[in-house]
Design goal:
The protein has 8 helices and 7 strands; from the N terminus they run E-H-E-H-E-H-E-H-E-H-E-H-H-H-E. The protein is α/β, with parallel strands linked by helices. It has a single domain, classed as Rossmann fold (3-Layer(aba) Sandwich). Strand 2, helix 2 and strand 3 form a beta-alpha-beta unit. Helix 1 packs parallel to helix 2 and helix 1 crosses helix 8.
Length: 285
């Protein structure tokens, strides 16, 4: 535990959506530490927001567990190519698909690409997210509110609806929610509201898809050190980021990867409708 970076962190800001290499410290995605054991051998996975942060850590873990991966991302081409490199170094196929998941047609194109390039879909990880910080509701524009919902929750519906016809019994859908689902940060009002929606979307989806043999679960991260942080939060909040949880530090993306592996693993065949909290010791009630 002691080797993980703790605040205070250097002052740093970035334009949205942020880049990995200029963060200080650079996040750990498990590049040097994750060791697979074939838990996802020959599975086909679609991961949104897989260029960096949690998505990159999941892509690395899945590849080292034996899965081929479609890396969906917005426009962070340099980060996405680095994720692709690590996946291919693990001996697995990596397909890059840039574009904006707020658009339904692009979500359907992601699924079509996975079917044509990977040969199917066994795992869908809905991870891409948009957030922005506002101290007053008056500062949240209609456009900002709508964008947050389009990226964070509408895209999950579009992607899931498109993917399910291609999924066989034993397939898994994993959605990234947040500690904000249960304990919303008031300065992240739009983001926190969508994360609550994701929790309910997943709970209903698990029941709806059970007869098809498809599982649906949620991972609820606490403060995680990703490019989203310096690109969307005030500088003083970035400096002390993670201090508020019992471990008094942010989690590294690599520390979430095993939760996503467990939920995708066919051996977790009775786990559906669950929320796995990865919060540095802060309970989700």
């Amino acid at each position: 535990m002691n080797e993980h970076p703790k605040p205070p962190f250097p002052n740093q800001t970035q334009p949205m959506p942020g880049q990995t290499k200029v963060m200080e410290p650079v996040p750990d995605h498990g590049e040097r530490t994750y060791r697979g054991c074939g838990r996802l051998a020959d599975k086909k996975a679609v991961i949104t927001g897989a260029d960096s942060g949690i998505g990159r850590a999941v892509a690395i873990a899945y590849a080292r567990e034996g899965a081929d991966v479609l890396i969906a991302y917005l426009n962070e081409h340099e980060d996405a190519k680095e994720t692709q490199r690590v996946v291919e170094d693990a001996g697995r196929k990596a397909v890059l698909v840039p574009g904006d998941v707020q658009h339904a047609d692009h979500c359907r194109d992601i699924v079509k690409k996975a079917v044509s390039e990977l040969g199917g879909i066994d795992i869908l990880v809905n991870n891409a997210a948009h957030q922005a910080t506002f101290k007053s509701i008056d500062d949240i524009s209609d456009e900002e509110w709508e964008l947050t919902f389009k990226v964070n929750i509408h895209a999950m519906f579009y992607l899931t609806k498109a993917a399910v016809p291609h999924m066989r019994p034993g397939s898994a859908i994993i959605n990234t929610a947040s500690i904000n689902s249960d304990t919303p940060n008031p300065t992240l009002l739009a983001y926190a509201t969508t994360k609550g929606a994701i929790q309910n979307f997943t709970a209903g989806l698990a029941q709806l898809l059970a007869e098809k043999g498809i599982r649906a679960n949620t991972v609820a991260p606490g403060p995680i050190w990703t490019p989203l942080i310096p690109s969307t939060m005030p500088e003083d909040a970035v400096t002390k980021f993670g201090k508020q949880v019992p471990m008094q530090r942010p989690g590294q993306p690599a520390e979430l990867a095993t939760a996503y592996v467990m939920l995708a693993d066919p051996l977790s065949s009775y786990v559906s409708g669950a929320t796995i909290a990865v919060t540095g010791g802060k309970p989700i009630l």
